[in-house]
Each structure stands twice: as C-alpha cells, then as structure tokens.
Amino acid sequence: MDNPFKGEHLLPGHLGQFFTILAFGSSLFAAISYYFATTNPGDTSWKRLGRIGIYVNAISVVGIGACLYYIIINHLFEYYYAWEHSSRALPTHYIISSFWDGQEGSFWLWNFWQAVLSCVLVRKAKSWESPVMAVIALSQAILATMLIGVEILGGRIGTSPFILLREAIDLKQSAPIFATNPALYHNYLTYIKDGNGMNPLLQNYWMVIHPPTLFLGFASMVVPFAYAIAGLWTKRYTEWIKPALSYSLFAMMVLGTGIIMGAFWAYESLSFGGFWAWDPVENASIIPWLVLVGAVHVMIVYKNTKHSYITATILTLTSFILVLYASFLTRSGILGETSVHSFVDAGIFWHLVVDVVVFLILTIVLLAIRWKELPRTTKDEETYSREFWMFVGSIFLCLSCFHLVVVSSIPVWNAIFGTKLAPPSDPVKHYNIVQASFAVVITLLTGFTQFLKYKKTDNVKFFISTLVYLVVAALITLPVIYLTGANKLQFVFILIMVGAIYSVLANGKVLIDAFKGKFKLAGSAVAHIGFGLIMVGALISAGTSKVISENTTGQDFGADFVKVKNNPRENIILYKNTPVVMGKYTVTYIGDSIAVPNHYFKVNYKVVDAAGKVTEEFLLKPNAQANAKMGLISSPDTKHYLFSDLYTHVNMSNAIAVGEGTEAAGHDEADDDKKYDAPIPYEVAVGDTIRFRDGYVVLKSIGKVDKVQDIALTDKDVAISAKLQVNANGKTYDAEPIYMIRSNNAFDFARKVEDAGLKLRFTKVLPQKGKVEITLYQQPESAKKWIVMRAIQFPDINFLWSGTIIMVIGILLSIFRRNKELKTV
Amino acid sequence: MKKSSIFGLVVIAIAIAVIISVYSNSSTYGSFKDAANTNSELHVVGHLNKDKKLVYDATKDANYFSFYMKDNNGEECKVVFTGSKPQDFERSEQIVLTGKMEGNEFHAMHILMKCPSKYTKDQVEITEAKAKQASI
C-alpha cells in the first residue's frame, strides 16, 4: 500500500477495523438466524447458522481486543486510542487498564462479556437456545455498532478504537508547521514521542479489576431479559423463570460486587473522603441492580406460589432497560454540570437513545400483544404469607430505584421539558434521608418475612416470634448507637439500625435452622445477613465519621464569615516537624519520600497517654503526583483498625512542585538569603544559648580546623569552627559553621539545618570580649515546608466490607441451590 | 377492595410523595443577581475572573479561599469558600457554585469545576525533534 506517512503501522488497525465490522455482521447474522430458528422450530439449519454467527462473533470480539492490545502495548501512537489513553511510562498492568479507560474500550469489554455469556448459553440453554440467543445476539449487534465508526449518510455511527491520530485530530491546526511543510507532515510520527497517558487517579489496581467486574455484571443482565422476552415470544409464559433465576442471581452477585468495588476504590484512593457520594454516575450503576434484586425476589415468589407472574416479568424486563438507560446517562454527556465525572458527549447521544428505545419498544410491544394471555391468579394473596411481603419488599426496592432515577435524571427532565431545575443543593443529605426511609422498610421486611411461610402462616406464632426478635433488636440497638455516637443522628437512621440488626438476627435464626438440616435456606439467610451488616457499616461509618483535623487556629476573616453556616473547617496546616494535636493523636509531618512519579508525605501519628508515654505510633504516607498535565493529584492513605479507619489526605503542599525532579541545582548565595528572615547576629561565649522560634542553639565549643572542604590550608591560614547544637521541636542537630582568615581576608562557611529551617554563620571573632559572633538566619514560617491535610475517622467501616463478602457468599449458595433444583426437575 | 389494589394505591402515593419531595428539594440555576434577591441556596454557573486575585494562603488559614467569578450574565462577584483551594483551580474553564449571598460576598458550599485537562482536550503535544531521535 502506498502510504505517504512514514513510520505508521497500519496493519493492526486494518485488521482490527475488519474485526469490528465482522463482529457487527456476525451478531446481526446470528440474531436473524436465531429469529428464524425460533419461528421455524422444525428446521434445525437456522439454529446451526445462528451458532456459527455466535462463534464468529466471539472470535471477532477477541480479535478486536487482540489488535487493540497490540497497538497499546507497542505504543503505536499513530492510533488515537493508544495516544489518548496510554504512554510509554505506564507500567504493564496499567496498560491493561488503559485498554478500558476510554469509551470504546469499555464498550468492547461489555461486548466481550456478552460474547462469553453467549458461548455459555449456546451450550446450556437447550430448548431455550433459539429465542434467548436471538435477543442476546440483537443486543450484541447493537453494542457492536458503537465500535464500527463508519460514516453513513453524513453521520458517523459509533467510534472505532482503530481511528488514526491524524484522522481524529487536525494536526495541521495543532502545529501550523505541518500545514506549511508537507514533508514534515508526512513525517509527523517522529514528533509524536509519547501518548497522553492515563489520569493518575485511575492508575490504581482497582482500575484493573473494577471495570471488568462491573461490565460482567451489566452484560449478564441481558440473560434474564432474554429469557423473559423468549418466554413471552414463544408463549412459554411460566417456564422461563426457573432457568433465568440462576442467571439473575449471578448478575445480581457480580454487579453488586462491582458496585462495592467502586465504593472501595473511591474510599481507598480517591479524595472525596467517603465510600459513596451519590454522584449520578454511582447512582447509574445501582439503579438497575435494585430493580434486579426486586425481580429476583418476585421470581422466587412466582416459583413457589404461582402468584405475581406479571410483576416478575415486568421487573426483569425493566432491569435491563435500566442498564441501557444508565449507560445513556453516564455516556451521553447529558449529566453535564451535575456530576464530577467529566463526561463529554462523544457524538453518540442519539445512538445511545436509539439503544434504549429499541429494547423499550420491543418490551412494550411484546407485553401489549401477550397481555391478555399472561397467567394471573384471581385469588388474593394471604396477608400472613411470605409471598405477599416479599412482593411488598420488591416493590419498595423499585420505589427506592424510582427515586434515584427521578433525581439523577434531573438534567434529562430539563432537556425534555425545558425546565431549569438544579439537583438538590445538599444532594447527599437529600439522598440519605429519602433512601434511608426505604431502607427502613426493606430491612424490616428482610427480617420478619423469615418468620412467615409461603401460602399461609399461623398468625399468633408469627406475631410472637416477630415481636420477640424486634424487642431484642431494639435492645441491642440501644448500646450500639450510644457507644458509636449514632444516637445523635436523625431518627430515621436509628430506625434503619433497628431494622438492620433485626434482619441480621432473624436471618441468623434461619441460618441456625439451616445447619440443623434445612440447608437449602442457607443462601438467602447468609445474603440477608450480609445486607444487614452492609447497612450497619454504612450507617455508622458515614453517620459518625469525624473530621479530626478541624482547624481552630485559622486567621479570623470577620464575624460574618464565622456566622455563616458554612463547611466545617476541615483542613489543617502542618509545618514540617511541628506537632499538632488532633483528637487523641499528636500528628507531625516529618518529611517526604519520593518515588517518581509519586511524592509521599510522611505523616507521623502518635498517641501519648497521660504519663507522656507513647502508646501507639504509626506512619501514614498519603501521596501526590505533580502531574505536568493535570497539576497536583493526591490520593489518601488510611490506617485500618478492626473497628475504625483513620483516613488522611493531603490537599496541598509547598514541598512539591509540578515538574519535580527537574529543578535546577545550585542557587545563588544572595538568592538563598532571601529565603530567610533578616539575619540576626548574636555575640556568644562557649556555653551560651541563642533562642529562636522553634527552639534554641547552644555553642558547645570552638576549635581549630585543619581542613575546610576542598580548600587546602597553609600555615598562614587560620580556620576555626563553632560546634553548635541545635534543639528544635524536641530533636537535636549538630552544625559546625567555619570562620577562616586567609591572606588577611575573612571568609566563612555557613551551615544549614534544614529540618529546623535554620542557616548558621560564624561571622566574627571578638577576642577582646572572649566571644564570637554567630549569625542566625531563620526561615519565615511560610517558607517552611508544610502540608494542608484533612483527617477523617471512619468507625466500623469493616462491617460494610465484610457484609459485602458475606452477601456475595450467600448469593453464591443460592445459585448452587437453584442450579441443583434445575437439574433435579 | 382487593388487598393488591390497596397496596397499589399506597405505591402510587409514595411515588407521588417522592416526586414532590424531589421537586421541593431541587434547587435552581441562577445568576448572582438572583442570588442577591433570595435567601435560598442557588446554583450559579460562570467562570473565574483570572485577572483578579485568588486568595488562598494556607499559612494564614487553610480553610479560607476567595476569588472573583463572572456569572453567565457577565456579572462579577466575590466568592468565598470554606476549605482548601481546589487543585488546578486557575485552569478551570467553567465553575458551578452552590451557595448563597451573604452581604456582597457569595458564600459557596460546594464548588464544581470543569477543567480542560490534557485528558479530555485534543491537543497534540509537538516536541522538537532532535537529531538523535529514533523513529518509532
């Protein structure tokens, strides 16, 4: 091929582009084949064609990944994606995550997991294969269009990850020299030495595992949807629920894990000081999950009682539509100024809308056509039955989701109705209160429903056991909230605490019964206990987290300023080596350690008891990267205890400069003096003390020296040194400035004690007084190294993390149970 | 009446309550002028006046930050924020403030800024080629 541009590697891109088209073509082909396989069940050749389509699609999706990986790992910056998301300095494991750093890469990830699930389903779905695969292949085909990047009718469909840098960006505009000199332009690659690199915030091992987990969760939600559609389509109304249940539980487990991983990542390495901020992007991931959890419960209700079929179907269908809606919210750029996550409209706004609308119409039309035939029960559910309250709980989950959708979609309402609403001015408080009300109902339901049986329960027995447990839960709650300080919270949060503890107790009883023989109940009991613990952990840690770095020393900016209900003064300045007492800790910024590109601030925490003895001491190293492209990017460090965490985050410092490490060495002497306050000469004799702001200096002795650095001394030279001991902030340092006379000229060699911010000169000898003159240069307070930090204590956050693990184990047990049932029936 | 119908009514009632609570809790976008005329909290969108001084001196008070912002109508106002200066504030392209007027100053509870970072803006960094530069 004749390519005027030197040094470009076009083959991987062409191959990759071929695979994107093939992935789209094969999935569309599979969808059509499986459609006809469903409508002509007698003809097995359609099914065979469909399978070929699925396998070709899987191969081409892997092919896209392989080409993209090759491009990124070999730093082929002629490709926009590699240039935009990676750089040479990026270590290998982060190169993997730069893969899904961009829009296209995350779509690929979604595509990949759907391809994997397709291959599993082709083997496992048996009689459901054709209709289920038709739906999944359709979803796969629509996702594939996001990656093809082909121009049709003047508009571009999707964005290909294989677009070239010179096609994506007008290089001639960026660098006018290219416009005037075509020879240079054809050689442009030699000027592109490195890629943009990845946002330092994302250079974290969570970025390697969080997105794949989250997208496996999103991808697996298509399976229950496909089963529900297949059930309606082939009129096997009631049969789809049983096989779909395991997949729903799987999606619920994986997506739940992915969401909590995101929370953990935010808590551990981002700087917003918490695990959940109700950002629209976070909400977008939890919206489909809530409805899915509701759907799973109603599916179980249907399986056991034949009640609530229509609700089970609608919730299952809705959960997948919400996945697509969430993807529209986060990727279309509509959130604009309501989210800290900066998402720009990448030109796929309408594409995403179409994605949602296609599946929404499919759902509505199919439901409308089959509506009259759907199985219903005429009999009302018993009030004292498990199914009724499970149903109520599921609906409350959906209401909680409904609230999240209504608030997160405020920009969407503005776009549709032309209104100018803004999100609540204190969104966290708003979400917390409203969501807490739903959480109270849901935790109580997960508790008392355990005492009910399907169909009908003896209500006297039920009331007795319910009440006994409720009283016990309330009794446990009292000491818990008083010990943790949660009693000062709003009443609704205390109710959640009662509900969560109640749920843990009631499910604990079920778990004990499970060990006595009813083992199949263990899964749900364990999952509910996990959920209860998540609530307890979230409530205590978020509700009683305490900023221990509250600043009480700040300069007064006038009474007006103090009066205002304003942010608490959460930041505190720490000068190097000057201890500050915060709560029970004595905190000192003791220095820095630099491992390029990270700059670690060493912050020492000490707990000193009444007798002045140090009972505990540890070092936290919050770090910052002075990134030339993004400025200072800092991430926190956390001390983990069993029952609380201490989070420390540095906002700002004068010890770090952008472009660190390139600083020119060798300052001018006069310049150096400018960094200090005006020098003060002291006349002192041996044994005298000079006081300064942070301590004192003692003149220990004066002695003759034979050698001054590199200068060879002759007999005619005289050099004497002053041995000084500097005491600053409880530490001692030695300094030995030198005074020298050479050929009747006096010189002196200053000594610095950086930690104390001092420069000491031996400036005169006063033999008649028997004294010497020591000149002291002291750094002004502001020139000393400092950090501005924020420290927050999060109590009992480990309940949240361990609750998650327990919940995942519980769901896993349930999956095993449902799979076993599937085989035995 | 069937129990499911009663429950359905309860659900609808809660849904309406949710919408009303969101609507009443929702704030509005406005200008500094609007903020001066109201006591409630507002969202003000605008941009930093880079000619005027940003005040943040951690050595004096690590929790006082003030700057001048022009709202979308071009009106300028001094803004005070209790907290440390957000990173890269000088480079911000657009600022969204949440807060209210106190006298002549706008007291922000929350600042959200959009930065034209290298990670979102397409700007190729062209470096001088040197003789020893190997081609890729």
Automatic annotation (TrEMBL), chain A:
Q: What are the BP-aspect GO terms?
A: cytochrome complex assembly
Q: Does the record's keyword annotation contain Cytoplasm?
A: no
Give a Gene Ontology cellular component term annotated to this protein.
membrane
**Keywords assigned by UniProt?**
Cytochrome c-type biogenesis, Membrane, Transmembrane, Transmembrane helix
Alphabetized GO MF terms: heme binding; heme transmembrane transporter activity
Keyword Transmembrane present in the record's keywords: the answer is yes
Q: Which residues form the Cytochrome c assembly protein domain?
A: 104-332
**Could you list the residue ranges that cross the membrane?**
15-37, 49-72, 107-125, 132-154, 214-233, 245-266, 286-302, 309-328, 348-369, 389-413, 433-452, 464-483, 489-507, 519-540, 799-816
Q: Which family does it belong to?
A: Belongs to the CcmF/CycK/Ccl1/NrfE/CcsA family.
Query: Which protein is depicted?
Result: Cytochrome C biogenesis protein
Lineage of source species: Bacteria, Pseudomonadati, Bacteroidota, Sphingobacteriia, Sphingobacteriales
TrEMBL record, chain B:
GO MF annotations, alphabetized: heme binding
Keywords in UniProt for this one? Cytochrome c-type biogenesis, Heme, Iron, Membrane, Metal-binding, Transmembrane, Transmembrane helix
Record GO cellular component, one term:
plasma membrane
Record's superkingdom?
Answer: Bacteria
Where, per UniProt, does this protein localize?
Membrane
> GO annotations under biological process?
cytochrome complex assembly; protein-heme linkage
Query: Any keyword DNA-binding?
Result: no
Q: Know the name of this protein?
A: Cytochrome c maturation protein CcmE
